[in-house]
Amino acid sequence: MNQSDRNQNEGKDPARAYRAIGLASAIGVDLAGCTIGGYFLGRWLGGMWGNAGLWVGLGVLFGMLSGAASIVSVIKRVMRESDE
């Protein structure tokens, strides 16, 4: 199969396109959700222990890192499924 045949076949598979759209939206929602969750966790801890700015900053950082780890996990799973 030459390059032009491969490009034509890739454009005709709507399931593949929907899967790519789903992956992109899952990445965005995952990162945003974890970051917002980290903000609220930091705000709650800041209210309990004082120094709210520090706890909010740490909570957002923790949320972003956990979101990034979750994104890596999702991408690995999708790549493993596409190899099968």
Task: Tell me about this structure.
With 84 residues, the protein is an all-alpha fold. Helices cover 92% and strands 0% of the residues. α2 packs antiparallel against α3 (52-83). The longest helix has 36 residues, at 14-49. It is elongated, with a radius of gyration of 19 Å. The two termini are 20 Å apart.
State the secondary-structure class.
mainly alpha
Distance between the termini: 20 Å
Give the ordered list of helices and strands: HHH
Uncertain segments = none
What shape does the CA trace take?
elongated
Binned, the helix content reads over 70%
Core attributes:
84 residues; mainly alpha; 3 helices; 0% strand; elongated
Question: Strands, helices and their partners?
Answer:
Layout: H1 3-11, H2 14-49, H3 52-83
Brief overview:
92% of the residues lie in helices and 0% in strands. The chain is an all-alpha fold and 84 residues long. Helix 2 runs antiparallel to helix 3 (52-83).
